[in-house]
Amino acid sequence: MADTATPNVIRRADYAPPAFLIDTVALEFDLLPERTVVKNTMRVRRNPDASRAAHLELMGEQLEFVSATLDGQPFANAHAHEHGLVLDNVPENFELTLTSICNPAANTTLSGLYVSSGNFFTQCEAEGFRRITYFLDRPDVMATYTVTLRASKADYPVLLSNGNLLEEGDLPDGRHFARWEDPFRKPSYLFALVAGKLVALEERVKTGSGKEKLLQVWVEPHDLDKTRHAMDSLIHSIRWDEERFGLELDLDRFMIVAVSDFNMGAMENKGLNIFNTKYVLANPETATDTDFANIEAVVGHEYFHNWTGNRVTCRDWFQLSLKEGLTVFRDQEFSADMAGGETDGSDEAARATKRIEDVRVLRQMQFAEDAGPMAHPVRPESYVEINNFYTMTVYEKGSEVVRMYQTLFGREGFRKGMDLYFKRHDGQAVTCDDFRHALADANGRDLAQFERWYSQAGTPRVSVRTRYDAAQQRYSVTLAQGYGEAAPAARETQKGPLLIPFAIGLIGKDGKDLPLQLESEAQASDSTTRVLEFTQTEQTFTFVNVEQEPLPSLLRNFSAPVIVEYDYSADQLAFLLAHDSDPFNRWEAGQRLATRELLTLAGRAASGAELQLDDSVAAAFARVLTDESLSPAFRELALMLPSEAYLAEQMAESNPAAVHAARQFVRKRLANALKDDWLKIYEQHRTPGPYEATPAAAGHRALKNLALSYLTELDDPAETVRLASAQYDAANNMTDRAAALSVLLNASAANGGSAEAQHALDDFYRRFEKEPLVIDKWFALQATQRGSAQRPVIDVVRKLMTHPAFNLKNPNRARSLIFSFCAANPAQFHAEDGSGYAFWADQVIALDAINPQVAARLARSLELWRRFTPTLREGMRAALEKVASQVKSRDVREIVEKALA
Ligand code: TRP
Ligand code: ZN
């Protein structure tokens, strides 16, 4: 294709219903790696609700057209072209059979039908089905599918597709077949097949209504010992969706399949979820606590899609957040409930740790997206390549938007809205507006203003002014909302004030919450947290009978995805960190304190000034460290400094080197000043005995390993190196082993390498040579390590690119080395000499020819280039221009052209 000079823009406003509908699809596959023949028989009719079209235009890509028959007769009016098939003069209602050929072995894009480790897999979302057969490949065309798979029995003993197995048997010449039927209508993006040498962990469970279901986790034979946690996560997900939302599994069989070549995390194909191995395989020796938690979250996420996404799907891809925002919200709530106690999830402090982690991701990644050239609303208005819109905004901000309904209406009101949504729309392809209307109608509310959360891009800012009138005992809180200096891409979309649920509490001198009574109310309410409905550009809320001047606790539990501006003093933040009854805001106070200090220090570092740490900041951190009333998991989160990427983004001019220097300075000061405490914590929070994957045990390990990492910064780290080496050697789990290795690598950076680090690195490789997910960690740990002048990390990375285990075609491996360096090691990547950018450009260009989706993700790591210091900015511009002049895919072009525009 040569016509990519100006990529076509797809607009939401241009939506039109399809001219034809497809009611049933019968697919037959003769699976051969280089030449798979697909026969597709469809029942097609004209759509009574669409304007009459002259032709039936089906989408198709990378297909070899073989033949068409219409109602059993050869059909001559079918014309294949590069993007599909045009059929002229078709009747009102007919059966169409199309035969085509594709080449799965040559498919490195991992979209459509492809081969991985000798097995067949599919990935159809968003527009991969058209790479398998000609079709109306859009989510508002829903059909029921029967699928027949035929393949060599020896090479592909397992044949899977969506739904229920109807029949299987042998064929001549060592071949066999299986026939599957999915009784539910679905859009083509939910189609899946898998064929190969796989084995399953199986379990039978009864759902709420007493029906028995077969659950399977399919993997390659050597991975069977790593499937238990995924299966448990699936069972927990099934129970949770019944209890929290009254939603039951609707198929007799539910399958998860793991594949090591995969573009994203996992895919919710009906009854046949396909997962990146990273989100399935775990045992204590190979997976960290974070891996275990991620698996639980992703298994939940894909399972929850069965209702939010599959039973009710999206009308068009602009509505993507309808399923993704809602399903992320559901998986976040699931994980929080699991952390907070299996039965009722009522341990609020434990639930809060999950909330903190989610907000940290949102602020670091989504806020950055909103500040750059890719800024878009939760429901975008246009796109060039839909794969570029599986974003932090659609997923994470989308989840925050859903969470705000629950904050406004409570869990019960939210549940009523969900019930009405399913009652109205089960089996349909609908819009974000349909979801909002269901929530509004079920709760008797007009949510017209709330629509702006879907249509306005950019991160809202809420500035807060407070006034205490001692004589009248009145406390007024004035909120003002706006967007500040938004990126141009965001500014265009901003029309007016949002409905912001703003949760607030007032704290007295003793650190306890004060009763809350607004001036319009007869008495104080029971709760000491109030959700203010903030709807105007500026609005004042007045509390009465406030007996002492309070300290406000603002935006409790992060009740809306906004930036709060309020001029707290350092003492006030330290007080909140010590006393706020809202655990999220306790953490938040510490982050504000640290961020402010770090930004001041980064500014000084940038101008070469001397650095000093405010004693009160160190004291506040010391109190958290030794506060036994706080859970270890919470302490770990509170003591972890904001990331370098987040801090750099907060600077007027991003300066990664200065941020790194400031952050290292603070870490060093805290390490040396609190050395004895860190050592004590390190000893106290060991988890001897067999590994337990519980949140409590994970909390101990996290705090212990944080202590070890601080101890790396001691002026004399010899003792730390001894501890880390011993921990490495004795570890019975990957959390402790990987943490120890990371500490050894960082401790050795200062000395230009150390024997202990090299020994552990070599041992790690040998020990886990046969575990690709662990070798990914081996690459990632080296790519994200601290560098030194003698040994910049780019040199290590370039050398690792030639390691026999490196493979650019495998996305996990590419991410482990290249993305880790370009996106997770800012101080090294943004080297003044531009070496990081040159490397980035080469890799984007190389990946573009293999896998445009993955290349486009990497391409995004320079999008904030305009915000950096002049030298870096110019280096990035040159790299972007190089990429723009050489890449071919629509995916990467959209990213780099928007960045340069
Ligand atoms: N729908 C999937 C999810 O969020 C993600 C997804 C979209 C995906 N497109 C993909 C996964 C392409 C793999 C490849 O659960
Ligand atoms: Zn999803």
Automatic annotation (TrEMBL):
Its cofactor is Zn(2+). Residues 84-190 form the Aminopeptidase N-like N-terminal domain. One of its GO terms (molecular function) is alanyl aminopeptidase activity. It is an enzyme of class 3 (hydrolase). Its EC number is 3.4.11.2. It catalyses: Release of an N-terminal amino acid, Xaa-|-Yaa- from a peptide, amide or arylamide. Xaa is preferably Ala, but may be most amino acids including Pro (slow action). When a terminal hydrophobic residue is followed by a prolyl residue, the two may be released as an intact Xaa-Pro dipeptide. It comes from the Bacteria. The keyword Hydrolase applies. It holds the Pfam family DUF3458. Residues 230-453 form the Peptidase M1 membrane alanine aminopeptidase domain. PANTHER family: PUROMYCIN-SENSITIVE AMINOPEPTIDASE. Belongs to the peptidase M1 family. NCBIfam families: pepN_proteo. This is Aminopeptidase N. The gene is pepN.
